[in-house]
Amino acid sequence: MMRPIVLSRFSSKLGGGTERLGDLMRRLVMILVFLAASTAGAAEADKAPSFTEEQATRGEDIYFQFCLQCHGANLSDGEFGAPIRGSFFRGRWDGKSLAELMTFMTESMPPEDPGYLYPEEYADVMAYILKRNEVAPGDAEIPPDPAAVQNVILHW
């Protein structure tokens, strides 16, 4: 019974009755829920990429077999392919998800036969590219499913 007394005391000072105070409380709760949800979503969407040293090593082997001809030994000195190391690559992919990069790779590389590699091989090559762009290895591999890395955002 103490709660209605407190509400009526505050509502009389606001001049709007208990309905107005209740409405204000509902709005405040909705705002707090929205802020909590958007903060949680931002934290989730801002995960850093993770790959293992072993995955990057596998990716290097695949890169030298399928990507070297176009992108070059330094990933930025190829005769035909765009640089995938350095400021050009970082500028193009900064702020984009790992899923976007993975989808681009699987749908357009190698140019003569897009989608030729297994999904795991694309993930391994991506690990090698990230390592060569000074992203430090971690303890988890890049999964081969783009949906699993949709919330992993590239930042340089």
Can you give keywords for this protein?
156 residues, mainly alpha, Cytochrome Bc1 Complex, Chain D, domain 2, 2 domains
Task: Show the helix and strand layout.
Layout: H1 2-14, H2 17-45, H3 53-66, H4 68-71, H5 87-93, H6 98-108, H7 119-132
Helix pairs in contact: 1-2, 3-7, 6-7
Question: Explain this structure to me?
Answer:
It is a single chain. The chain has 156 residues and is mostly helical. The protein folds into two domains: 2-45; 53-149, Cytochrome Bc1 Complex, Chain D, domain 2 (Orthogonal Bundle), CATH 1.10.760. The protein contains seven helices and no strands. The longest helix has 29 residues, at 17-45. The N and C termini lie far apart (58 Å).
Count the strands?
0
Low-pLDDT windows of residues: 5-11, 37-43
**Roughly what is the average pLDDT, rounded to an integer?**
84
User: Main beta sheet: strand number and arrangement?
Assistant: none
**CATH topology group of the largest domain:** Cytochrome Bc1 Complex, Chain D, domain 2
How is this structure best summarized?
By secondary structure, this protein is mainly α.
